Amino acid sequence: MLSLRGAMVPTEIVLSPKTCEGISAEQNVPGAGTESNMRLMLEHRFSIPISIRDQDTDVIIVKELYPDRCPICGRGIPFLREMINRLESRCTKKIRCPLGHRYEGQIKIYYLNILQMEEPAQESKSIETCPECDSRNIQHLGPSEVFCLDCEWDKNMAPRF
């Protein structure tokens, strides 16, 4: 389960060659001829390292420092990206808070899927009345989301993980 309290830092985007070409075309990246040029142009555009490979692709690698607050004074850790890089490059796993307290920490890594598979829109359009209040004041927010404007009932018809 993802932490709601801690701050997550995106550290890398991993794309398939096909997805990279699609993003380059969509973003109108000029001069993106070779795979290497596309990767460099996208890295410059998104300000995050990008890898292009054929397996385990289309994810954003996100890292979280845990705990992200000092257990002694409760202060948050500034410059999370630098602290994560420091912990990964050293053999010690000690975190230092802004007041100088040291404590054991760890880095949690998450792989977030960046491609959303769209469900057919006809499934959500079949709801015409709210199942909670029987109102016909229904708003379709997307291909798989429905919202009642009267009782605020909402239904995301796509499964959530």
Report what the structure shows.
22% of the residues lie in helices and 28% in strands. The protein is α+β, with helices and mostly antiparallel strands and 161 residues long. Residues 118-124 and 157-161 have low confidence and may be disordered. Helix 1 crosses helix 2. It folds into two domains: 8-113, no CATH class; 122-156, no CATH class. It is flat, with a radius of gyration of 22 Å. The chain has a four-stranded mixed beta sheet with strand order 2-1-3-6. A three-stranded antiparallel beta sheet has the order 7-8-9, with no helix packed on it. A hairpin with a 5-residue loop joins strand 8 (145-148) and strand 9 (154-156). The protein contains four helices and nine strands.
- Give helix % range: 10-25%
Q: What integer is the average pLDDT?
A: 78
Low-confidence segments = 118-124, 157-161
Quickly give the structural class: alpha+beta
Radius of gyration, in Å, reads: 22 Å
* Apparent shape: flat
What's this model, at a glance?
This protein is an alpha+beta fold. The chain has four helices and nine strands. It has helices at 17-26, 35-46, 80-89, 122-125; strands spanning 8-15, 50-52, 59-66, 94-96, 102-104, 106-113, 138-142, 145-148, 154-156.
What keywords describe this structure?
161 residues, alpha+beta, 4-stranded mixed sheet, 3-stranded antiparallel sheet, 4 helices, 9 strands, 28% strand, flat
